[in-house]
Write a structure and sequence with these properties.
homotrimer, 406 residues, mainly beta, Porin, two-stranded antiparallel sheet, 56% strand
Chain lengths: 406, 406, 406
């Protein structure tokens, strides 16, 4: 993608630099009463955030490659961190073995590059599910086979970058796998089908035992409040699985996933600790108004963003590419809980149910720049731990993202 | 300035790397009694600090440019942060439109590059005033028109990088503008006149309301103690404005500014909350002993540092450029306060008055290196909140800065 | 070493990029009872850590060089920091004058590059001793003369990067020196002898006085617990000194050091505060099974890692270099303390005694990559502050390091 690269005389050594910057401006439109049963609690009505600001340093020697990617953005920005640090070996063409901190392939929305997203953030269920044994900067050992018509990836995974800043007596261990294919593909059409799953067979153990917390922000990060949240669940293990589908026809694209999460709560005498199940899914579509296709990437088993046929030129008359997007997304973090009965009585959890209906418009002046306007209608339905009070909220969010990636 | 740059074959894409490192060693010379009425309170009598350590990554495509600049120094050093992350579009030559986190143009001393400073730190009044709606890594949208004889810049501004780490219910919004010109300019002479201003029409609001805090260190950052400080003022809005002048004749330069700050305190029943006004200014001069001029930069509407006519060469005999500098700077953060009466009784504030008389010597071995010795006499006159006790202090500071910039 | 470099047309300006990434996976094998007299206290039985992830930016102009090296790894990882930021001037060939934050030359194991280590971590006594007035990112001014047969280095040193985040009333000041030589050297043989020392003549002073704390992890950093620890000693000054030896014969190498640390405790009326002495040492050896030598580096006065004669090639048949390593290391942080008597009664300290017997195996597929397996047997013998209870522990550690350096 046009990253500046230096190569040694004999061609064996190479170094390249890439970058990705996403800067968001926006706010929430909300009625007077706040959330969490607290009228004063308000989401940020106008703010800015540097969502991602990554510099990709890549060094290669023969078929070995090192990737080191600091990130100066975040949720919220202000604390530089690391997106990935990994070692790659590709002994045969479509096989890549990787070791270190990185994002193992998991599901369709997680495999898509964050430069190519239809909406600002990943669907809630994907963000929550990938956090269990996959996600950014996860300690992983595994590989990917990315052929023309099918894609397979499997990893053993551990803790994430920075998790050692609190002392564990044993780190998390898990596994992640993804299998996908294009049963039908021609110049105008791509049909994508797949299945993905993860299993944390041992959750991170600290002095006070093992636990897992599932939660997410409302697919928008000008404000960092998480409105759905299971709290820390004492648990031994957890798994996720789900099917994925995608369809492109010319400049139209549609994709979706369903994911189910299972949590095996730790047994304790005299306390109800049933197994818990959570679920969610999303469907999203894109129409590139100027006609460019969102081409399928065989390397990641996911769709890319459109490449403008006529890049924007103040003098010339090119206007770049324009795209309209929409999404419906739902997550349900309630389980084994009964309205009117406290969580402690059932061993279940009122994590809340979040529905997001979103619309968006993108402008791609050229292959490097993107402007993206997002409008979401969010409905959170959640009871407090006693099961008596509604602490959810209905509101709208608006955000404009400016993106430069190369 | 000789930054290493890679350009693509067709010349449309370019990437360049720049750097700036400033490392300070110094200490305070102080009499036995400490400040703040506490005899044990002492400024650091010998220490080091990495003031700035920036790597400038700049990527361009046609007339778009992305700047991403991490900073590994600080006040104090130890916490890597971000100096800027912004998107630029320059459709016509002297016009630059910019969006993202960066330092919007504000006043003369703030527009000068930190590589070119006459003294180690900006004058106190400038540091305080630019902190209200301008300053480093400020969320801004705006532009600059920088012609041969005049300069105009205006921005809408929001919060700064990292400010989302505490939750706001609405971010700050404001505006910054600067208008300057060179009514007279010939080979030997530059006369600079200008006016600048800023207005925070909505201060950052958190759960406990809106507030503003004005304070600064004694124009020296080996120690991080701020001796003048208004504390958090409950306020709705604030503004600043001031004139600027500059004069260069051959290798002599003189410049100065006056700034007035107005704070509109939030009204509360039964509590006096008058509008507050603070002010300050500075005059500083430079004599480049070896004769080189401090050339005027039309791009920033400010003076640059001298470029040595005969770079230092151990063998050859060149000794680089040498420069003597001096400054008088004053800030008054007292208002509506009466000696002997508590702040709460008047609604005013004993923020303190700080005077700094400074002298300096610089050696520029070549265009990249600079060594800078600074000696300041600081006098802080400040009463405690009760208005009864002097908590100010008189002392000297010494510091040597080593700088490499390209 | 093949770092990508850009040079200006006239050859006077140059910029280069280097990198070092070390990623560790491992765990502790330990019996049921925990350490510190606490059965629940356990070392991490399985975890990962990004030990080092450094990007070396180096800029040169004539005989001046600037080095700026962020580090995205750590102990533990998660908090980006700075490894060095320094200015170098080399007016005559083997002389290098350096100023800024960096690691001044101190002892044999500390002078060795962390890419070339025989075991994962430096010997405990070296880690502890270098922490007093030397170590990474130390404020230093000094120089090195590195000739073919002898090496001399001396520095004035101050605080380290990030130490200003707590306020000092005066920073540490000290000195570090190292003198070493190769009395005998031929193609097959290098004999290295040296002596090193440091003196912190003024320890960092904060509001509560001056203090020094000596401690270390068990030469393994999957878990960050320090099992030997003197606690904060109220002290005025401290020194270290020790001899070093090294011997290479063909592909065999043996090296070792002994270090003695002296701490001058601050006097206080009615409290015993004897001078304290601690000591330790190590011997370690390497056998490069495939025959390559660990060449001596005259620039650092230390041995390097082997350079594979036949780099690994999946197709060709080269298998890189293989090496077996072993170490015995001991540190004693007990002094002036008597079993059964509390520390306060004697003014001494039960810091603990740590012995580590380690074995390792390295694979170097090529000059950039290294895989390193380490197995340590650790025995910590330590009494609590009352002198009555054993709080030490015996355990094994295992770790695999993957390293990419260029």
């Amino acid at each position: 993608r046009g990253r500046p690269t230096i190569t040694s005389g004999d061609g064996r050594f190479r170094a390249s630099l890439g970058g990705q910057v996403q800067w968001d401006v926006g706010g929430a439109l909300q009625d007077s009463p706040g959330f969490g049963g607290n009228p004063a609690a308000r989401l940020d009505s106008f703010g800015q955030n540097l969502r991602r600001a990554r510099l990709f340093f890549s060094l290669g020697y023969d078929d070995f490659t090192l990737n080191l990617t600091p990130d100066f953005g975040g949720s919220p920005d202000g604390t530089p961190t690391l997106y990935e640090a990994n070692f790659n070996w590709s002994p045969v063409k479509p096989l890549a073995l990787t070791l270190g901190y990185y994002k193992p392939y998991y599901g369709l929305a997680d495999s898509m590059s964050s430069n190519d997203f239809l909406m600002l953030e990943r669907p809630g269920i994907i963000e929550i599910a990938r956090g269990i044994a996959a996600g950014d900067s996860r300690a992983s050992i595994g590989g990917r086979w990315a052929a023309e018509r099918w894609f397979a990836a499997a990893y053993l995974t551990g803790d994430s970058y920075g998790s050692n800043s609190t002392q564990a007596t044993s780190g998390q261990t898990g596994g992640v796998a993804r299998l996908a294919g294009r049963p039908y593909a021609d110049a105008d059409t791509d049909v994508h089908l797949g299945v993905t799953g993860s299993y944390a067979f041992d959750l991170r153990r600290q002095a006070d035992g093992q636990s897992l917390r599932l939660r997410d922000r409302p697919e928008w990060r000008i404000d960092q409040t998480r409105l759905i949240d299971t709290g820390a669940l004492a648990a031994d293990s957890a798994y996720t699985w789900g099917p994925e589908f995608g369809l492109r026809w010319r400049n139209f694209m549609l994709q979706g996933e369903y994911v189910r999460i299972g949590v095996n709560q730790s047994q304790a005498s005299g306390v109800p600790r049933p197994d818990l199940g959570f679920e969610g899914g999303y469907v999203e579509g894109s129409w590139v108004i100027t006609g460019e296709p969102r081409r399928y990437s065989t390397a990641s088993g996911a769709f890319g963003r459109p490449s403008p046929a006529r890049p924007f030129d103040f003098a010339g008359g090119g206007w770049g590419a324009w795209e309209a997007m929409a999404r419906y997304s739902v997550v349900d973090l309630n389980d084994h809980a009964t309205r009117g009965r406290a969580q402690a009585a059932t061993g279940g959890v009122f994590g809340g149910r979040q529905e997001v209906v979103g619309m968006g418009l993108s402008w791609y002046p050229n292959n490097f720049l993107r402007f993206m306007l997002n409008w979401d209608i969010v409905n959170v339905d959640r009871l407090n731990a006693a099961g008596t009070t509604q602490i959810g909220k209905r509101f709208h969010t608006l955000a404009l993202r400016t993106q430069f990636a190369f």
